[in-house]
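Supplementary Methods, section 5.1.

A reviewer requested that the exact input to the structure prediction be made available. We therefore reproduce it here, unchanged from the version used in the analyses.
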Amino acid sequence: MMRLDSGLAFVCGLCLVGVMFLGEVAQAVETTLAADDPKVTRWEQDVAALEALDRTEADPADAILFLGSSSIRLWDTIATDMTPWPVIRRGYGGAHHHDLCHFASRLVAAHEPRAIVVFVANDITSPTESPAVEQVMVDVRATHAAIRNRHPQVPIFYIAITPTESRWPAWPKISRLNTAIAEMAAGEPNTFFIATAERFLDPAAGQPIPALFQKDRLHLSPAGYRIWGELIAGTLEHELGPPLAVEPAGIRVD
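The structure derived from this sequence is encoded token-by-token as follows.
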């Protein structure tokens, strides 16, 4: 069990879920919410709908599997922006790591991807009312363990949480979470962190660039998604080498 300082005690307490590694005895993995918590089960229908796609669609070879929250779900131009990498998109919500850690094993179970890319940005939205970075990291590690349970060797890439105008007051805390995720990735085999903030902040003003976001000042605009695609595709090629040649019909989105 992780040792928690008294100042970091969580109101909801820590729950335990069992994760089986490579056929060995199940190990307890900490999560901040139980699997039957309403904040988790509210997404059951969304995840079940994604599982239904898994039963009716075949994966392209060499595919990159994207998991995460609404920025993944809303990325309608992902096939174009990620060219030449074929993609599988499995975003839902509103996702937080406190629910994705319970659903990740289901979302990756039907796939044999070249790599898995994760983006979740909803755990910290306020400088004072959101959970502590250490609390969020409990669930980030649980998400990672759930993916590793199904895919022990597949490369996993975590996209940095983007600086946005709508959540700018929380940016210092979000930045600390990004640092914590990057440090986790550096200590895990075949795990990588994709930094993005420099491309989304005005170098003169130090503020998010409005043209890269939709009117809600939260989700990416087409220009923002193109930058995301450039950064992600570049990191994939740097770490994995070039993608295999695929037919255009092999590109898959939901």
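The chain has one domain: 6-250. These observations are discussed further in the main text.
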